[in-house]
């Protein structure tokens, strides 16, 4: 029996007590609802984003033809504009969906590119170490040390705001974390037996990196991507809120919140509709991201 | 540096667009006589005696480009730069916002018999706070400085319209103009109101007014400290020419560009006085129980067509754009429905309003006809880019207009968002097709002339109509309101016939807001761009 063979202190580490197991089960039970909701919401988001053009929606930039009765309508249980209209008379539902689509696309694009770059540089730095590793540390630490919003604002001011600028800015934001995760995992795997074995059999560095290390590093990096996406959606929202995000009339959730802010007292839905969508999306990404990280055994890299 | 210049021109556009004139400070106007301009409530109507002492904290809308009269020439500007200029420099002359009359202040008079040779008489015994005299030499020195091309003053065209500036004696300046100008005092009040001590300016050269050090004027307050983009603290000028004034010991300006934030600071008591310039926030202030003194300016904001480029070198294109926009919807978008839809160039409350001169009625069918005619002749669709600035409701307005126009057949409008400073330099360089344009003021002079005369200093559209030129000149040289009104009515008609520009709102409403009864003696000049700080006092 294991219990008899090792000191009790270590037993706790290897095999949790019954109470601890129960606690974890309870947490999981609660987590299961949140996880279910999160995947459901993300599924819905992805569905409406992909099929936005096919849904029976008004165009997001379409204003009413005449009169002012269609301006700032409140949400209600009706087929016509269930989420109300904004201060220019445009459909909130359509704008939220297209805004969400833009946010998701931006975050996904930026995270994917950041992941590619992060893995490339992170793995190289972790494998080579030496001067390349030191420069890598310097660059990533510097990027991490920048207050993110300041950094984005400066970039948006220097470049012309738009989809491309925003994607590039967001890559800068997501890159250092991804790269650091890649590097840390590379350091671990590079000293493992199978790498040693490959090397002993005469494999070159390039082959070891591509065949032995990359596949092992890719999963943990992907698992932090959900969290990174959540962060990027918030960052994009902040930029749009400050008016340096995607230029109109393309909707963006942050810009919609900013647009509704002056009328918060009279038309709170202008702030709350996009605000709640933003909140649920970020919450869902965080929940799914946490689970992904736990499943992929990355708790030690949680920070 | 280029960027900085862009910024300067942006603020210029915001600040410089008006006539200024004077409230007579020689009379013993007490705070109890403060009137009620505009439609708002009055801050002080009680017959209380002013109390000396106390510190007043004022929230202003933007940081100044500098405290040099060369940098900030205008006296209009909705609570941005001019208030501070007045506090430090006082003014030669400013406009009374109730009567619209030009009234001298540090000047005693500015008169002419032939509208070419003007005599400026100064008040005796006025001294700058460094002890040097505020005399004809000092004023001439300041005016001559505007003519230095290196300093890039916006008042330079005005100085160049003068053949000579001669010092007759210590208190008299004789100005000879190149051509008749019956509204010369308005031009002076608008662009040449502030004068700095020549001694101080010479000591600092072109760096004068960029830091708090050595800023010397003849105003009610003197500079104590200035932290850019944060606050400016001024203290009472003990040698101010009006005995017993100012009432306040200290005056603090804090920069707060966000309108809602200014309102919040006022509500929580962090500040005593704030400029609120948009109708929705003014309404919020009223609902929160704050008291505002409002001033309605004669100004218009809208979108300028570039007449030197396609497609707006064609009147049909311009008129189609004007016709396709529902003014009711535009008012809803621009002011949250708090302002009336516009129907004419000037609000009915002004002398320049003529019920017979109105904009063409909203009609998408008429607009489409014009577009069809345009497209048939040119052989291509009506396409253009609407450039807009990121300030205030501008992006929303641009999106709305583009969406409304894109509903027409054969029309394609794109919007382009740029920083305010950039749109201003684009406007000046005529590097646009359609772009925001505004002028402020308390009188059509000088902005109307400057904007629509073919040789006007602010004619950024390339508009050139000899009939308009002639009418504007006649209006400028007339001195009675009836003649001026007739001429301006003609100008309005001609502008409407030519389909320029696209007006969004014809009212500027500034409100200087305070907690009930806290600040007394509020009297504003011009379009509400500034307040006579020497007359303010705090109720204990």
Characterization of the model:
Chain A is an all-alpha fold and 303 residues long. Helices cover 71% and strands 0% of the residues of chain A. Chain A is built from eleven helices and no strands. The longest helix of chain A is centred in the middle third of the chain and has 37 residues, at 92-128. Chain A is globular, with a radius of gyration of 24 Å. The relative contact order of chain A is 0.13. In chain B, 30% of the residues lie in helices and 22% in strands. Chain B has helices at 2-15, 82-89, 136-146, 156-160, 184-191, 198-204, 259-267, 279-287, 315-323, 327-335, 364-378, 394-406, 420-428, 447-452, 466-477, 481-498; strands at 55-60, 93-95, 102-104, 107-112, 117-122, 162-169, 172-177, 221-227, 231-236, 250-255, 273-276, 291-305, 382-389, 411-418, 434-439, 502-514, 519-520, 524-525, 530-531, 537-538. In chain B, the strands form six sheets. In chain B, strands 8-9-10-1-11-16-12-15 form an eight-stranded mixed β-sheet, sandwiched between helices. In chain B, strands 4-5-7-6 form a four-stranded antiparallel β-sheet. Chain B has a two-stranded antiparallel sheet with strand order 2-3. In chain B, α12 links the parallel β13 (382-389) and β14 (411-418). The longest helix of chain B has 18 residues, at 481-498. Chain B is globular, with a radius of gyration of 23 Å. The relative contact order of chain B is 0.18. Chain A binds chain B through residues 61-68, 71, 87-90, 161, 243-244, 247-249, 259, 261-263, 265, and chain B through 260, 280-281, 284, 326, 328-329, 332-333, 336-337, 364, 390, 395-396, 398-400, 402-404, 406-407, 415-417.
Primary descriptors:
A: 303 residues, mainly alpha, disordered N terminus, B: 540 residues, globular
Give a brief outline of the structure:
The complex is a heterodimer of chains A (303) and B (540). Chain A has eleven helices and no strands.
Largest sheet of chain B: 8 strands, mixed
Percent range for β-strand residues of chain A: under 5%
The strands making up the biggest β-sheet of chain B line up spatially as 8-9-10-1-11-16-12-15
Biggest interface and which pair forms it? A-B, 24 and 26 residues
Which segments of chain A are poorly predicted (pLDDT under 50) over 5 or more consecutive residues?
1-13, 299-303
- How much of the sequence lies in strands of chain B comes to 15-25%
Query: What is the percent of helical residues of chain A?
Result: over 70%
Rg on CA atoms of chain A, Å: 24 Å
